[in-house]
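RECORD TYPE: inverse folding
INPUT: structure tokens
STRUCTURE:
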């Protein structure tokens, strides 16, 4: 089959009530249902794109400048073609709420969105509406506009939905990462 993938950071494919793990699947389900993802081709995203290619997937990307490795398309085209959108964009005035109601309305019905970029690149009200009307089939995030989010945050309404997975923004929290940080600090003090 001619399956496509738009690379992202997380190997997420579809949401199931059984075996739901961070919007992911067990390995067998992943290989049976690999689909499309999108990303910004920053260092993290490019690495994942290479991994996706190794699985035999077609990799598309939304990026300001054409990429030599991956096919670069417009955000609108990505939204129309993707089953999974994994976001790796920096937050700035051009990307502020770039995933808004208008863009989300152009997405394939049932799209899964994974935001590991910055909380303010998505319009969380538009994501909520998309989840409620079925445009968005699943949403995963470890970033929020304000961290930690407040009692009045829309994320309090989303957190108990079966097709939403929220984790803390703490990739640095692993012991290996902390040990590396301490080593770098010590080396900087010595130097």
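DESIGNED SEQUENCE:
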């Amino acid at each position: 089959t001619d399956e496509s993938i738009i690379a992202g950071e997380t190997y997420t494919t579809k949401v199931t009530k059984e075996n739901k793990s961070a919007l992911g699947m067990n390995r067998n389900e992943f290989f049976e249902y690999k689909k499309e993802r999108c990303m910004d081709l920053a260092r993290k995203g490019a690495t994942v794109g290479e991994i996706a290619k190794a699985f035999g997937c077609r990799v598309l990307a939304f990026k300001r400048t054409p990429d030599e490795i991956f096919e670069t398309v417009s955000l609108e085209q990505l939204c129309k073609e993707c089953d999974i959108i994994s976001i790796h964009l920096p937050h700035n005035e051009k990307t502020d709420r770039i995933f808004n109601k208008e863009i989300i309305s152009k997405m394939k019905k049932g799209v899964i969105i994974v935001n590991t970029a910055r909380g303010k690149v998505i319009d969380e009200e538009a994501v909520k509406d998309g989840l409620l009307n079925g445009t968005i089939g699943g949403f995963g995030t470890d970033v929020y506009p304000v961290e930690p989010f407040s009692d009045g945050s829309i994320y309090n309404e989303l957190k108990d939905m079966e097709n939403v997975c929220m984790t803390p923004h703490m990739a640095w929290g692993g012991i290996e990462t902390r040990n590396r940080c301490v080593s770098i600090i010590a080396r900087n003090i010595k130097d």
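NOTES: The longest helix spans residues 175-190.
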